[in-house]
Structure formats: C-alpha cells, structure tokens
Amino acid sequence: MKVIKNFNDYEILDMANGQKLERWNGVILSRPDPQIIWNEKTRASLWDSADAKYKRSNKGGGEWYIYNKDMDSTWQIKWEDLTFNLKLMGFKHTGIFPEQAYNWNIIRKKISEESKNREVKVLNLFAYTGAASVAALSKGASVVHVDSSRGMVDWAKENVKSSGLENKPIRYIVDDVVKFIEREIRRGNKYDIILMDPPSFGRGSNKEIWNIETDLFNLVKLCTQVLSDKPIMFLINSYTTGLSMSVLADILKLTVNKVHQGYISCDEIGLPMKDSDLYLPCGIFARWESEKYED
C-alpha cells in the first residue's frame, strides 16, 4: 500500500464502527467507510469532539449532522504550498481525497523534471474539484481540466485561485470525457500526461451513461491517440469496489504500453491513523510511465 505521511492539515484520529474520525485543518469530522468493520475504538474520548457527522440512512444515502453550530460552511486545507477549499457535500464528501496526495507528489516531481527541457501538457479527465490539476499547474505544466459537472469545474477554479495559480495556463471543459477525447483526436491535440479518476457509474453533460466495467478499456484505448510522441505518464485511479488494481494494470498493458513501451505499476493507496500501525485502504491505481518512479 502507498501511503502519504506529510499531509500536516489532515489526519485520521480514530477508526471504529464503520466510521473514521478525521481532522481537516481545525475541523473534526466523522464519516462512514465500508473498510472499517471493527468496533474497537482506540481513542474513545475523541469522538465527542466531532464538529459534524455523516450518518447513512437505512433507505439509502444519508445526511450530515452538525454538532458545532459555529462551524463554517466552507473552510480551507493546505498541502505543501497548495490550498484547497472544502465543504460538506452529499454522500459524505468534502471536495478532496487526501490519500491522493501520494499521486500529487508524483505528478509534481515528474513535471518538475521534464519542464526543464520542454512544455509539459496535462489532461485531467473526470477531474472533479481539480486537486491534481492544481498540483500540475504548480510545477509549470499547462492543464486541460475536464469534468461533466459545471459545479465541480467551478470548484476547481476556486482551488486554482486559492493556490495563487489563476494566471497559469489551464482550460476548464464541462463535457462528457469520451466525446471530448473524440474531438481532441480530430483536432490533433496531444498530451504528455493523462490523469483519470473515473466513477463506477455516471452521466455526462448531455446525460451520456458511463459504466466503468464496460467503458473504461475503450476510453483508455481512445486516449492513446492523444498521447504525445514522448509521453511521461498515464495514471488511472479507481474507488470502484471489487475492481482489482491488476485489472487497471492490464488495461494499460493492452493499450498504452503497446504504443509506448514503458513501466507499469499498480497498488493500493491509503491513509495512516495517527500514532498507530493501522492503515485505511482508500482505493487503487495503475500507472504507466516512461521513466520508472522510485518511491
């Protein structure tokens, strides 16, 4: 498992009864996680300090319960020199996935190395609120940020501005990712790094249906046509339960690596619990790269 350890504004304080108790800068949240199947609390007294808790409903979904009435509706969190804007969203989310700092670090290192010799162009698909876009911008890349939700794209713009990068080269696209890639192929546009974090299921901007099991392979194969002659990296993240990281790696072997010989790796990604030897699995990734990254 790959774990980030230098996220000073975020930490898991405890895990038990299907919930994780987290500190997001000065805000304490309790959120559900299906991986936490034990009921043993390590720091029982801390749970009463939660500012808000997301509780699932027996009928599906759930809602936030606010215990601290003075809690701001939005707040910020920092990772290294970057700043992200947070708020309590439906289905337990806050706007970023802190475990992805592992990937942000790799993105920044690769861009820093390559941008000494050339302009690095990054395509971020299913780009959500843009944390990876911000990471890429911060090291000198030009970025195309694509998501089907205008609300998420607007949020990404806020994150770029909060990190002081609003004058850097980024294009925001509200569109279905498959249709966007098809147009980029016709236009002849190319990218050195492609990032994607596809959902299990979703709808495009014009109600297009996305199913990761039937559509991911075809999308990755399509994306090989917009890779530059000297690509740097192709990264697939997934939170889809039951999808193996080896499957993601195989997809890259059957697509990207057939066109550009490189190195493929895959692993779980997770978060440590404070002062503990417990680690929370948070998802999987597979990465193709032209030069092997050493942790």
Descriptive overview:
The chain is an alpha/beta fold and 295 residues long. It has seven helices and 17 strands. The chain has helices at 101-114, 131-137, 150-162, 177-187, 212-223, 245-254, 256-259, and strands spanning 2-3, 10-16, 19-24, 27-32, 52-56, 62-66, 74-79, 82-87, 121-125, 142-147, 170-174, 193-196, 201-203, 209-211, 233-238, 263-272, 279-289. The strands form four sheets. Strands 1-16-17-15-12-9-10-11 form an eight-stranded mixed sheet, with helices on both faces. A five-stranded mixed sheet has the order 2-3-4-5-6, with no helix packed on it. The chain has a two-stranded antiparallel sheet with strand order 7-8. Helix 2 links the parallel strand 9 (121-125) and strand 10 (142-147).
**What structural class should be given to the helix and strand makeup?**
alpha/beta
Mean pLDDT: 95
Strand tally: 17
- How much of the sequence lies in strands comes to 25-35%
> Order of SSEs, N→C?
EEEEEEEEHEHEHEHEEEHEHHEE
Q: Termini distance?
A: 12 Å
- Could you name the ranges where pLDDT drops below 50 across 5 or more consecutive residues? none
Tell me briefly what this model is.
By secondary structure, the chain is α/β, with parallel strands linked by helices. The protein is 24% helix and 33% strand. The protein is built from seven helices and 17 strands.
